Amino acid sequence: MARSPLILFADNDPDFLATRKEFLEREGYDVAVAHNTVEARRALDRNDVQLAILDIRLLDDDDEKDISGLALAKVSAHQGVPKIILTNYPSYAAVRESLKPDINGLSPVVAFLSKQEGPDAMLAAVGDALDASRRLRPSLLRLFLPLIMLLAIVLSGVFAVVSYDPRWLVVTAGLAIFYAVSTWWFASE
Amino acid sequence: MKAMILLIGRQEKSVWHQILSESLTTLGKLDLVSEEELSAETTQTDYNLVIVDAATVIDAENLLSRLLIEKPYLKIVVATLSPTWQEARAVLRAGAADYLSKALTRRELLVAIENVLNIR
User: Fold this and answer.
1) Inter-chain touch B88–A107, beta carbons under 8 Å
2) CB-CB neighbors (< 8 A) of B92 in chain A
């Protein structure tokens, strides 16, 4: 059975964190929690997180200058992990910092949510972020698989001719059939 | 090279238009068109940047989507007098390159627009 996606949930409010963790687990996700930036960074460094949900104020809820969660979202080493920002204090400036594209045209986070929007809005954002991330992965497969397959067909064909071994012809035919079927499958998806 | 910038706003010149025009003098030329006058010809012109004055259009998010359907790589900035986080989220998700408050100083405005023009 396929493993559930692992979501990192970082929030310094332990009650809120526990409630939302339970909610996400009921929906079928594996959830790792972090109570501060150190724990969150450590979890992201492990490279097994598929999505991160980060509270903006991970250090002090009463400090309106605390944007530690957003700063963590911008760390380039974790750029491959899609991130959702969740906050009790949504502001135009925070949204701008989160969703505005950088010089490469990429936004630091994929979604910005207010905690007041509730767990269903969070669940929808999680679903959208994971879907978008899955759509990206097959595109790499689509790019390289045909090239690898063509190379394998050519090589086994060359072996068949050079070695006069009929088994290589069977291998070549098998690869060619697999190539045709996989091309059709990707095209029809 | 001087940038070509289009402001979609009221046809009669406003104070903010004046400020914008003066602030962006070093960056390039600012054309003004109202939403009603926005034609296919206008959108086909190779503008480096389009600034939408949210107060003067019916639905900024919708206008943004229409412009991006025609030109997916067009850089669009939405400016408003009263920014809200909900509108900021909506327009940035719809593909805006930035969402600005009209209360920005000339210097801040210039830096923000320069940053958008530098997006690859």
Assistant:
1) no
2) 95-96, 99-100, 107
- Residue B33 belongs to a domain with what CATH number? 3.40.50.2300
Which residue of A96, A110, A112, A113 is the best one to mutate when testing the B interface, meaning the one whose CB has the most B CBs within 10 A? A96
pLDDT digits (tens, 9 = 90+) for B70-103: 888 899 999 999 999 999 999 999 999 999 999 9
Q: Report CB contact under 8 Å: B119, A114.
A: no
Rounded to whole angstroms, the Cα distance separating A42 from B43 reads: 48
What is the interface size between A and B, counted as CB pairs within 8 Å?
A: 42
CB neighbour class for B54 (10 Å; exposed up to 12, middle 13-18, buried from 19)? buried
Chain A residue numbers with beta carbons less than 8 Å from the beta carbon of B101 are: 92
Residue B58 forms part of a structural domain: yes
Domain boundaries, position B63: 16-116
pTM flag (> 0.90): no
Quick one: chain B helix, strand, coil %, rounded to 5?
40, 20, 40
Establish if B2 belongs to a structural domain: no
Domain contains B96 = yes
**Is the ipTM beyond the 0.90 threshold?**
no
Whether residues B99 and A101 touch (CB distance < 8 A) is answered with no
Domain count, chain B: 1
Strand ranges in chain B using DSSP code E only, listed in sequence order = 3-8, 28-33, 49-53, 76-80, 98-101
B88 interfacial to chain A (CB closer than 8 Å): yes
Give residue A140's pLDDT: 58
**Is B10 a member of any domain?**
no
